[in-house]
Amino acid sequence: MGSVVDAANKEATESAHINKKVTVVFVLGGPGSGKGTQCANIVKHFGYTHLSAGDLLRAEQNSGSENGAMIKNVIKEGRIVPSEVTVKLLQRAMEQSANDKFLIDGFPRNQENRAAQENRAAFESVIGIEPEFVLFFDCSEEEMQKRILNRNQGREDDNMETIRKRFRTYIESSLPVIEYYNSKGKVRKIDATKPVEEVFEAVKDVFAPLNDKVAY
Ligand SMILES: Nc1ncnc2c1ncn2[C@@H]1O[C@H](COP(=O)(O)OP(=O)(O)OP(=O)(O)O)[C@@H](O)[C@H]1O
Ligand SMILES: Nc1ccn([C@@H]2O[C@H](COP(=O)(O)O)[C@@H](O)[C@H]2O)c(=O)n1
Ligand SMILES: [Mg+2]
User: Fold this and answer.
1) Atom 15 (ligand 1): residue with closest C-alpha?
2) What are the residue ranges spanned by the domains of the chain?
3) pLDDT > 70 fraction of the chain, expressed in percent and rounded
């Protein structure tokens, strides 16, 4: 039976600095590891809303925002946009959604992202959510590079020069975040080098126990 402390912890997990209770899964992995592809499957089967930090930043860049030029340059250089920008975009998207279950894809991407989302006092608009778990798509660099170069979605960062920089950022800045969550027992690691359908079989095993929505 759950204790009062368990109940309080669950409340803390579910509450957020947005105006509703939400369940959040962070989806992490290297560039081209298949995060977006698998999130689309999870949305269909388990009723989550997919929020990609990269997609939100690209939309913000194209919206004529005052941050547009900065975002464009940071993405071209494969670096990480300051957390306050990304956190606000995520917060707004979560508030605007009618759903209460979110896949946050590509965030937190470095320790600064992580600190910003955890530290309720640092920013007025922090999310402050402890993830249910972190879904980690583990894929070889060779395979990720091949996938990105074949993606053909017109992304300005899908070129060899930026890909190299994105891989460096992933190793230097993103992997430590995954290691941090791993040390807290939060990481569910998936072998993402396999074909899409096989990867999703492994993903389903992670989500099925959590969800009452029947897969179809
Ligand atoms: N398991 C897979 N096997 C082969 N190709 C895949 C697999 N998963 C995704 N792809 C393809 O690889 C490319 C990258 O996938 P996707 O966009 O989902 O990756 P991502 O992790 O979201 O990348 P990014 O971090 O750059 O946004 C896409 O063209 C996608 O169709
Ligand atoms: N938390 C994040 C996430 C992404 N970015 C920038 O966007 C680029 C593309 O992200 P994808 O997840 O779509 O690959 C990424 O390389 C970063 O430049 C970010 O700054 N912060
Ligand atoms: Mg993606």
Assistant:
1) 34
2) 4-207
3) 83
Ligand 1 centroid to Cα of residue 195, in Å, is 10
Residue keyed to tokens 């993405």: 75
All residues with CB under 5 Å from ion ligand 3: 35-36
Nearest CA to 88 out of 129, 127, 131 is that of 127
5 is in an annotated binding site: no
Asked if residues 73 and 61 have their Cβ atoms less than 8 Å apart, the reply is no
113 lines ligand 2 (CB under 6 A): yes
Q: What sign does the CA torsion over 194, 195, 198, 204 have? A: positive
Asked if this assembly's ipTM is beyond 0.85, the reply is yes
Q: Which ligand is nearest to the CA of 56?
A: 2
Tens digits of residue pLDDT in 86-98: 998 998 999 899 9
Tell me the C-alpha distance between 56 and 134, whole Å: 20
- Per DSSP, 186 falls in state -
Structure tokens at 104: 């946050």
* 185: CB partners within 8 A, 6+ apart: none
Cβ-contact 106, 53 below 8 angstroms: yes
Write out the two tokens for 174. 């993103």
Return the CATH number of 4-207, one of 3.30.470.20, 3.40.50.300, 1.10.10.10, 3.40.50.1000: 3.40.50.300
pTM: 0.90
